[in-house]
Amino acid sequence: MSQLPSLRLDSRHVNQQFTRRSPLDSAQFLYGEVAQRMLQRLSYIRIAPTDILDAGCGAAHALEPLRFRFPQLRYIGLDANASLLETARQRYAARPGFWQKLRNKPTPELQFLQADMAASGLPPESLDLVWSNMALHWHPEPHNVLAEWRRTLRPGALVMFSCLGPGSLPEIRQAIAQADLQTAAPEFVDMHDLGDLLLQNGFSDPVMDQELLTLTYRTAEKLLDDLRIMGGNPSTDRRASLPGRRWRERLLAALESQRHMDGTIHLTLELAYGHAWRTAAHRNTASGETRISISSIGGRRKTGGE
User: Fold this and answer.
1) For residue 227, which of 93, 27, 69 has the smallest C-alpha distance?
2) SS (H, E, C) the chain
């Protein structure tokens, strides 16, 4: 794979849907759980980052867990959604956080930045860690996001992220087809392709793994409610008009037909986890160019004979 094409996602719809779901507290049953699993993976990696970017931070639910892990972090929360960022500012920037009160010591000032993940505007080579929990799959150009993360990371710094994989939502896809609803669920990138993209965008030693998480429901209505809470459907191939009652009833009936022996209905999510190291000074691109880290550019070191 030379380069992943743009995904069929509408960034405007992503933003609109997350504005409706702000502050995402009700979605933490999933997002918070995945963040804890990421933190467990991070605990095995020996790093002491100071400048940390939370890419796709939402309402900054990961701030306190990251601060507990790295008490002296300088936190930058980046998101494209103004409503979620305003919630984060009100919750964390206006008053001391839990860990600040517990330690009774000042903590570095927080920064919240409204920007696209692929165009942060941050200075090059200014970060020690990029952390991104369940955000990458909402961006139509993940290859550009990874390139931006490399640009802003210092040589030898770490990126760690989680996202949904293509094994997600098979029950929804089956129900859509069974009920002939003339719509489409969003598509997601395979973890192996993400690993290739990391290498192509100047990262080394990528580690990708995935797990299947099965959510169980007593009612199809609750399943659809949780699916909406998690972010909805920003696919450009989705039904153009708003679904009516009859449309929803057909979808619910198709989901009801999937009940298992124990009476529950399932929703499967493929969770992909990845981390990799930003390569050092030199990198050869696919076009044959050699790119040099700005940290390696400077005046020639003088010797005693000069």
Assistant:
1) 27
2) CCCCCCCCECHHHHHHHHHHHCCCHHHHHHHHHHHHHHHHHHCCCCCCCCEEEEECCCCCCCHHHHHHHCCCCEEEEEECCHHHHHHHHHHHHCCCCHHHHHHCCCCCCCEEEECECCECCCCCCCEEEEEEECCHHHCCCHHHHHHHHHHHEEEEEEEEEEEECCCCCHHHHHHHHHCCCCCCCCCCCCHHHHHHHHHHCCEEEEEEEEEEEEEEECCHHHHHHHHHHCCCCCECCCCCCCCCHHHHHHHHHHHHCCCCCCCCEEEEEEEEEEEEEECCCEEECCCCCEEECHHHCCCCCCCCCC
Query: Whose CA is closest to 158, among 69, 223, 232?
Result: 69
Find the farthest-apart pair of alpha carbons in the chain and give their distance in angstroms, rounded.
Answer: 86
Rounded CA-CA distance 73/107 in Å is: 8
Give per-residue pLDDT as tens, 182-195: 899 999 999 999 99
Rounded-to-integer distance, Cα 118 and Cα 155, Å: 19
CB 252 within 8 A of CB 220: yes
Give tens-digit pLDDT for 34-69: 999 999 999 999 999 999 999 999 999 999 999 999
Fill in the amino acid letter for 221: E
Report yes or no on whether pTM surpasses 0.85. Answer: yes
